[in-house]
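User: HIG1 domain-containing protein. Structure?
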Amino acid sequence: MCSNVLPYLKINETKQSPLFQAYKYHVIFTIYATATGLAFWRIRRQPYNASMKTEQYETIFKGTILAAAIAAIAAGKSEKR
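Assistant: Predicted structure:
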């Protein structure tokens, strides 16, 4: 049954605009920096002690780095198709 379903799960191969191709990593970095900055600002305003805030900073940093890396890998694979 899986072999019958898989042909329908192909990702649409659409052409990307040249502007997106030229600046996709700039956009990814801008989104990463904005999300990380906003999360850090929100943590800074919380009334918790320093050790708890430090753990929250580390968690946010790891999560946003992972998300940015996955987005960059996905954007890089789109140009190799």
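Helices lie at 2-5, 18-44, 50-78. The mean pLDDT is 81.
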